[in-house]
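Case study: Peroxidase.
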Amino acid sequence: MASYKPYSFVLLQLLLVLSAFDSGNADGLKLGFYERTCPSAESVITKTTHQYISREPTLAAPLLRLNFHDCFVRGCDGSVLLNSTKNNQAEKAALPNLSIRGFNVIDAAKSAVEKTCPGVVSCADILALVARDAVSLTYGQHWEVPTGRRDGKVSNISEALANLLPPFANITTLKSAFAAKGLNVKDLVVLSGGHTIGRSLCSAFTNRLYNFTGRGDADPTLDPKYAANLRKKCKPTDVTTRVEMDPGSFKTFDEDYYTLVAKRRGLFQSDAALLDDAETKAYVILQATTHGSSFAKDFAESMVKLGKVGVLTGKAGEIRKRCAFVN
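Here is what the predicted structure looks like once written out:
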């Protein structure tokens, strides 16, 4: 048996390395990471976010979406914030990111922090903290965000197109994409609840309203009355009109999203897809029938998990001076 020990040791080391690779460097994150180096960082970021959202509440949803789009491409490293260059099209240029607003909020928060603690707080951490504040400032849950992320130096349009989920994704695609990021089925259905705030361009769902199967019909999984109402707002070629994703409370972070999905009134095919899986459907029904009994707590937990995907810590990456540019 002794002769196998060297091989067992090597195998163990290899497994540990692979495990660390799959989860990024999440162990390098911790609560209060800037407690000594920039103790006012979080309060400065929250103050800045509040200034913008109090003036324009509709910014909350794109700021939350911005964080999700960052983490799903190369991990939570702020790569979505980088501008394209002469020789490289960045993630910002990808179709799913063209309609996102809020980059100015991140830049303002970074500028405010830099005045207090230059070269200390990463843009990736600012993104995570702003997303949390966007939820809490729209009457949603507040949670503690582990920090210590560093900023990536690479941003590529092709990676965004390959990793960001389209609004027409089915349940198989959704589950597979989340699993690839180390997120489970519960995380999928919980984070989908982020659609409780915000608006969407008609072009993201008009395929469900017109000629869905090639016979001039609507998507049969969409409530007919809701589809008729949406057709009044969105014509087949409309690419500019925005529609509330959670009609009536699209500025309030609540559990109404699940009530809509349960009634077949989820705006996207990816929302409707949550009824095609036993686990996700059960969660939708639970939250819809219990006034979101566990949604706030669940959302906070899943956001913390999302925030650990593919992070750079320690000496990896850099701390950008400006979020749109590598140093």
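For the exam, be able to explain this: The radius of gyration is 21 Å.
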